[in-house]
Every structure is written in C-alpha cells, then in structure tokens.
Amino acid sequence: MVSFKQRDIISIRHFNKEELLYILDLAKKMEQLDNTDMLKGMVLGSLFFEPSTRTRLSFESAMKRLGGMVIGFAEPGVTSTAKGESLSDSVRIIEGYCDIIILRHYLEGSAQLAADVVNIPVINAGDGANQHPTQTFLDLYTIQKTKGTLEGLTIGFLGDLKYGRTVHSLAYALAYFGAEMHFVSPNSLRMPEDCIDELKDRKVKCHENESLAGISKKLDVLYCTRIQKERFADPVEFEKVRGTYRLSKSVLEEIGIKNDLKILHPLPRVDEMDESLDTTDFAVYFNQARNGVPVRKAILASVLGKE
Ligand code: CP
C-alpha cells in the first residue's frame, strides 16, 4: 500500500511508478476540494534561499487552502544566515516551529542535508542544478491531463539541460512510462552524462541533438527551459549560448510539428519562447503553473498523514 506519511521528498528517484500515480490521482481530487480544515493547526516552514515565484507561492497557497499556516522567508538576507549561521543549524531551529519544511537552496544536496538533521519531513523545492521533484509531479500531472496518458510518449527537452533540475527530475520519472526522449541543447549544456547513462540503463531510447529541426515532427510534448544565467561561473560562457533557441509560432510552422503537440515550460521564461505562442493550443505552460496548487495540496496532505 502506498504511503507518503512523514516521508521526505528529496529526489524523484525515491518514488516508484505506483507512488507517482498515487499523487497524480490525489491531485485530481484536490482540484475539487478547497478551503477545508484538513491541515488545521499545522504549520509549513517555507525556506527559500533562492528566488521563486511559482514554487513558493503555490506551496503556500496549497497549505492555506487546506486550512494550515505558513511561516518562513523568501530572502535569506533577513535571517541569521546573514550572520553566518549554517543551514543545518537553521533547520534544526526551525524544526521546532513547524510540522514540515520546504527548502529551496543553491547547493546541490542541501535538501538531503536538511532531512538528515531534522525529524520532520523535508520537501526539496529545488537544490542547485540537481533536482526539483515537486515540479516533476506537476509536470506529469499536466502531461497526463493534456495528452490523456503518460504512456509511450515522445518527449523533447530543449534548452539548458546541464543545469536544468526540472529536466533531470522529469526525465527520470518519464522513464517509468516508456517515453522516448530527445535532448536538444547547445553542446556546452548537454544532459549530464550520468543522467543519460541511468536512462539508458533503464532502457529509455535517448537521442541528443543541437537543433529542434529534424526531430520536431516526432514530438508529442516539448519541454522548454530557460538558459540559466545565474548558474554560469563565467559570464563569457553564458554569452556564447544566450538566445540559442527562440521558439515562436512562425518557427514552429517552419520546422513542422504535430497538430496536438503540447509545449510545457517550468517558467520563468526569458527569450526562448515568444508570446505569439501563448494563445495557441500548443501552449500549456500557464495551466502547468496553476496545476502547482492541487499537486502541492496532494503532497502536503499525504506527507502530513491526512490522505
Ligand atoms: N518552476 C519554478 O520552479 O518556478 P519558480 O522558480 O518561480 O519557483
């Protein structure tokens, strides 16, 4: 029997197919359930050491819509981190103030570090370029809702695949569903070799390309990502790849796509996806962001033992 009660959510790798589907089913129910007191008296600690709009606010909305409360910060400069307090000391203290922690931090492995030192559940809201598992739950939910299935799809991943934590998490999850994957990126931003090796070990058909033209007609789903300026140690390296991909309605018409292609993007976007796409049936990224609330309601309710 599937149970998320008191579990940490650190990496999508820690969940099997049945568990992924459990959260998606529960999210469907959560869409109909609002303003309940399911999590009354419970407190979410929302700790964001890196900027966020969607993840932080959809988690906080989810907690409040289930009757719970939220404490936390969106800017570590106002906390004792600015005085030199370590992450492990901070979370040990905050553990005494709440029932569950969501943590976004620039260091890979930070969520696991926090989970190792506290006795309440920790949810990884993005650790450096590593993982963003709750984004993956909402990406899967969006794909299932818009394509009608998760099984046997051909998915293109476009953009910054080296630093794109949402891509790493989603690719691992889609491996359960027989997906064929095309990774399209500049050479310097290719999928990490260990990710590709793991996917191949799991019998996923993986292809790598630098251009979308030539493979675009095969895709059921295109998952676009921003080239993340803030992850580059050397600004010159960023300038070399800046603006490599600029999707627009006319580009898609030129390269050719399936009529029922769906385009996802974890957002924010910068220049890789033109606003001319927003009003097309291909664009599902704004609905994808909205799906963050039911999916995160499902995660909070199940981890806090109410579902
Ligand atoms: N998708 C996502 O993680 O967005 P934010 O950085 O705004 O949370």
Provide keyphrases for this structure.
Rossmann fold, 11 helices, 5-stranded parallel β-sheet, 9 strands, 307 residues, alpha/beta, 4-stranded parallel β-sheet, 15% strand, single chain, binds phosphoric acid mono(formamide)ester
What can you tell me about this protein's structure?
With 307 residues, this protein is an alpha/beta fold. Helix 1 crosses helix 11, helix 5 packs across helix 6 and helix 5 packs across helix 11. The protein has a 5-stranded parallel beta sheet with strand order 7-6-5-8-9, covered by helices on one side. Strands 2-1-3-4 form a 4-stranded parallel beta sheet, sandwiched between helices. 36% of the residues lie in helices and 15% in strands.
Q: What does this entry show, briefly?
A:
The chain is 36% helix and 15% strand. It is of the alpha/beta class.
Write the SSE topology:
Blueprint (H helix, E strand, L loop, with lengths): L16 H16 L10 E6 L5 H12 L3 E5 L13 H8 L5 E6 L4 H8 L4 E6 L5 H15 L6 E5 L6 H10 L5 E5 L8 H9 L3 E5 L11 E4 L10 H7 L7 H7 L6 E3 L20 H6 L1 H12 L4
Parallel strand pairs: 1-2, 1-3, 3-4, 5-6, 5-8, 6-7, 8-9
Helix pairs in contact: 1-5, 1-11, 2-11, 3-4, 5-6, 5-11
The protein binds phosphoric acid mono(formamide)ester (CP).
